[in-house]
Design a protein that fits this description.
The structure is a single chain. The chain is an alpha/beta fold and 276 residues long. It is built from eight helices and six strands; from the N terminus they run αβββααββααβααα. The longest helix is centred in the middle third of the chain and has 23 residues, at 124-146.
């Protein structure tokens, strides 16, 4: 598997021409919007910009992904209708209504790494449908959260080892649907939200429900796993893939912020790059 530096260096070389043709306006931008009384939808998009191909230009947002080298087939269909992309589409429609399309770029962790991309757009009907789904999810969570005597929420054993033994659900060894012979030692670490709006909400006497794309996906995959992380506040142990993706996004955040400021970013090696 390639290193993070090799993957980001390859990304910059692969997308250099496209990046020069786009006008970048924001990177790692945190957005939020009210959904229902006491419910906020939030997220942090990877990038936002303009395609200057017309008089007014087309506004877009971008999402950067890393993926296994074995997942090249069907990735467009997967991400076009993923809860993550749909949630970002909903956020952008509310906070930046001028945005009319989005691009997804993927770095496949082959050796050497390979890259792909696609452009998409959501219709008003698709966004309205997803908004209704998120409202339904939020209403369900509020109802479940009020039932404090529930031992656990709905379980989904199909999700425990969805990506194989190496990427098991982080809560599987202490879950409630079986008596596992191996349990994680000690008390779980405390979950620290990555979005400022979530941290601000937790400080309120009656915190609102804040949902981002990860939380929505977690709830759809397994409500009990959602409860452990977002209601009980248990932190998941960082997987190899999560650590790789986090470092990858940190490097690209630096790169796109410098593009926004008009810099010509060096490609000699990620270890030598200047800070954002």
């Amino acid at each position: 598997m390639p290193t993070v530096d090799e993957t980001v260096d390859g990304w910059i070389r692969h997308f250099a021409s496209a990046d020069r043709d786009l006008r970048w306006e924001a990177a790692e931008e945190e957005l939020s919007m009210p959904l229902l009384p006491g419910v906020i939808v939030a997220g942090r998009i990877d990038a936002r910009g303009i395609i200057p191909d017309t008089t007014d230009g087309h506004h877009f947002f971008g999402e950067w992904k890393t993926a296994s080298k074995f997942s090249k087939s069907g990735w467009r269909e997967k991400w076009r209708f993923s809860p993550q992309s749909l949630t970002y589409g909903l956020l952008l429609r509310e906070t930046h209504p001028e945005v009319d399309r989005f691009t997804i770029r993927v770095a496949f962790k082959s050796d050497p790494p390979t890259f792909d991309h696609e452009w998409f757009s959501y219709s008003p009907v698709e966004i309205a449908t997803w908004r209704s789904e998120v409202e339904r999810i939020a209403t369900e969570i509020i109802g479940l959260r009020s039932m404090v005597k529930m031992e656990y929420w709905s379980l989904n054993p199909l999700n425990c080892y969805k990506y194989g033994p190496k990427y098991a659900c982080p809560y599987v060894h202490a879950c409630t649907h079986a008596e596992w012979s191996v349990r994680q030692p000690g008390a779980p670490a405390v979950y620290t939200p990555h979005l400022q709006v979530m941290r601000d909400a937790l400080a309120q006497p009656t915190p609102p429900l804040v949902l981002d794309a990860t939380a929505i996906t977690q709830y759809l995959e397994c409500p009990e796993a959602f409860r452990r992380r977002y209601i009980r506040g248990e932190e998941e142990l960082p997987s190899e893939a999560l650590q790789f993706g986090s470092a990858f996004h940190t490097h690209l955040d630096s790169y796109y912020r410098q593009l926004i400021n008009g810099a010509h970013f060096p490609t000699e090696g990620a270890s030598a790059w200047p800070n954002a």
